[in-house]
Specification:
- This protein is an alpha+beta fold and 334 residues long.
- Helix content is 16%, strand content 30%.
- The chain contains 6 helices and 20 strands.
- It has helices spanning 3-19, 22-30, 130-135, 151-159, 184-190, 208-211, and strands at 76-81, 97-104, 107-114, 143-146, 163-166, 202-203, 214-215, 218-223, 226-233, 236-241, 244-245, 256-257, 259-264, 266-269, 279-282, 285-293, 296-304, 312-314, 322-323, 328-333.
- The strands form 4 sheets. Strands 1, 2, 3, 4, 5, 7, 13, 16, 17, 18 and 20 form an 11-stranded mixed beta sheet that branches. Strands 8, 9, 10, 11 and 12 form a 5-stranded antiparallel beta sheet that branches.
- A hairpin with a 2-residue loop joins strand 10 (236-241) and strand 11.
- Helix 1 packs antiparallel against helix 2.
Length: 334
């Protein structure tokens, strides 16, 4: 390169430095000129990572026991006496599910399953049976509140998927042994038990099958020697026991429910009990189910394959029978 040309290039660079920024001047001075015949490409700016969309929540929004707004509460079951001496019972209107079961000598007892509400008084509480140890694990690991049980049943309760909670809190205004009343709210605060899980029942406010289902305004179900009647009025069923209306012993309000579920079960002699007359109602297996809601009736099949498994209610086409969102009575008819 000639001396004259070199001086011209130097002068041009100085003009750029005087008219541009310091950074541009520095860059011009530091960056070598490209060699002839070689193309240059500006470096691409690093791209920002695209955030991965969050997975939609798969947590059900409805409650597994009622089909209403989901509750984060645990599940407690209370064994409640169902004789004339026990009436009027307390707390049944707050139970999400009430189960009617035969125990012995054609006598029945109730299991109140509480989840969305824990009353301060529930009872009268009586002894547990092996039917409870088989039925209740489908709710997860609920607390079972009871008042006594024979030694073989006690052993089975301790090994079942539930938390035994034996109580003997007496109400002096009632006669023993029909006077064990419990503060379920307080028990829920002091005992760690399992939370609610999906256990097989489904709910729907509306379903075309119910629109065309057979009318059934009054329902009578016999379990053991007791007949429970459900009279449909004003959108719900009023409950009666052997012709006598069920009235809450504290609030004096009629006991009502939204669904009535009758399970045809097999009753067998309880060979794992010290009692010679106790029976077990089998709730693992399958059988006929009749469901009542909104003054109508549908029939189908109930099925449950294991003690820890869910219980499904299906129609003749194998489709789930939807219950009305609300409270339910389940009757084990052997």
């Amino acid at each position: 390169m000639s001396t004259t040309r070199s001086r011209s290039l130097y002068a041009a660079a100085m003009v750029l430095c005087l008219t541009g920024t310091t950074a541009a001047c520095t860059k011009a001075a530091d960056s070598p000129a490209p060699e002839p015949g070689i193309e240059t490409t500006a470096a691409a700016a690093p791209s920002k990572p695209v955030p991965t969309p969050a997975e939609p929540s798969k947590e059900p929004t409805t409650d597994p026991l009622t089909g209403g707004r989901r509750s984060g509460n645990e599940v407690f079951a209370v064994k409640i006496e169902n004789t004339a001496a026990a009436r009027p019972q307390v707390g049944l209107n707050q139970a999400d599910i009430v189960v009617v079961e035969e125990v012995e000598a054609k006598i029945t007892r109730l299991i109140g399953v509480f989840h969305t509400t824990f009353p301060t008084r529930v009872g009268p509480v009586r002894s547990a049976r092996n039917t409870d140890a088989q039925l209740l694990p489908m709710f997860g690991k609920p607390g079972l509140v009871y008042s006594g049980a024979n030694r073989k049943v006690q052993k089975n309760l301790r090994t079942a998927s539930l938390v035994p909670i034996e109580r003997s809190d007496r109400d002096s205004a009632r006669l023993a042994p029909h006077n064990v009343m419990v503060n379920l709210k307080r028990l829920a605060e002091s005992h760690k038990v399992g939370r609610a899980q999906q256990f097989g029942f489904t709910f729907a406010a509306k379903d075309a099958r119910w629109t065309s289902a057979e009318s059934a305004g009054s329902v009578k179900v016999k379990v053991g020697m007791d007949t429970t009647t459900f009279g449909y009025r004003n959108g719900r069923y009023a409950v009666s026991w052997n012709g006598r209306p069920n009235i809450d012993g504290d609030s004096r309000k009629p006991v009502r429910t939204d669904n009535v579920i009758v399970l045809a079960v097999k009753n067998r002699h309880d060979s794992d009990s010290t009692s010679n007359i106790s029976v077990v109602s089998e709730t693992v297996g399958k059988g006929k189910v009749t469901v009542y809601r909104d003054g109508r009736r549908l029939t189908g099949t109930w099925s449950r394959t294991t003690v820890h498994g869910a219980m499904t209610l299906t129609d003749s086409n194998g489709e789930a029978i939807p219950l009305k969102p609300g409270r339910s009575w389940v009757l084990l008819q052997g």
